[in-house]
Amino acid sequence: MRAKPVLVLLALGVAVAGLPACGSGDRGAAPPPSGTPSATAGFPTGEQAAAPVARTGLGGPGASPSPSRRPATTFRAGNPAGRASVPAEARAVDTSRPTRTVGTGTPASCTSAAVVKAVAAGGVITFDCGPDPVTIRMTATAKVRNANGPKVVLDGGGKVTLSGQGKRRILYMNTCDEAQGWTTSHCQNQDHPQLTVQNITFADGNSTGEQAEGGGGGAIFVRGGRVKVVNSRFVSNRCDRTGPDLGGAALRVLSQYDNKPVYVVNSTFEKGSCANGGALSGIGVSWTVLNSLFTGNEAIGNGANPAKAGTPGGGSGGAIYCDGNRFTVRIAGTVIENNRANEGGGAIFFVSNDRTGTMTIENSTLRRNRSGQFETRGYPGIFFLGARNPSTPGSRLS
Question: I want to staple 187 with a disulfide (CB 3.0 to 4.6 A). Which of 124, 175, 258, 269 is the partner?
Fold first, then answer.
């Protein structure tokens, strides 16, 4: 759509400058024993103890799927025309020697209880549900225990769908959640657990009504440690319909170890719906999105951020919603199309409150993303406030 007058955008820029942030320089100490979120949804404040020595990250260099665990030929995810190079730590984890397996060879043996138990135990998790695709209807949210790992890998082999049945969030990890165990004195900046989801589908997740950490994350919620998504699909997930800053119908992330990026590789996000970020949402989090596809996602809140008088707020970032201080977004080899936002950024909403954040969109296509009220002039489907204009080498925006 056509950009609104410059004065409107300038006014919005002043308004969003006061948003809460969770950048790499804003990490706090562990929460009090009560574990109760603060008034700012648990965003860190103050100084933090020194971080632990990092483990080899997210599967380690050169890791790849076992030939016996390669996805079924009918499973397709991401943008097949994407040609962005994938760094070693962003690739799939080798699951040829799993720590544990869900199922004993039949669909009936692959239950919600078995998934919940395996995720809580940690390690490399695969599935043995028979030769055909299977949907596991989750009757409870699978939660990562922070002491079990340090790697937690969920590999569906291209045949497994985890369904929230439109009733619940599917997967949860939070290093600052007392109920999942504290493993360091600096929960907001620790390198573990390291969560990987690969070759799997998350469908019909719903975190509506979840209050912890401000909500969001219809399919997956992550705070702390590391997380990456490889060759996976997210379909028809959702979170609360309104709210100025919550989001991420598929994936919501708050803080990552040393502000290292969340990798999203060869993955598809479709038909997600939330107040903000119909697919992805983060606060002070860096993202690297490679060879992926976003289509039919929507930000359905209204009133923007901060919420206009008389509105509940939200409605920005049809596909991707990013807020905070110093963080980066890199999108390469990716198609973002037919997403919409009631307010700003039909494709992407990016606000760096202290104007230090940067965004690069390489060899990608953004098209037919509708911004209901505002976007940045010259960048169709994008609202951006950061250090400088987004860089878009080899990309098409329309």
Answer: 175
Q: What is the pLDDT of residues 64-93, one digit of tens each?
A: 444 444 444 579 999 999 999 999 999 999
The structure tokens 């040609």 sit at 83
Q: What is the pTM of this model?
A: 0.84
In the chain, the amino acid numbered 260 is K
Q: How many CA atoms lie within 13 A of 166 on its CB side?
A: 1
Domain boundaries defined on the chain: 6-19+71-397
Record the tokens describing residue 348, joined without a space. 């992407």
Q: How far apart (Å, rounded) are the C-alpha atoms in residues 55 and 255?
A: 17
Place of tokens 């909500």: 215
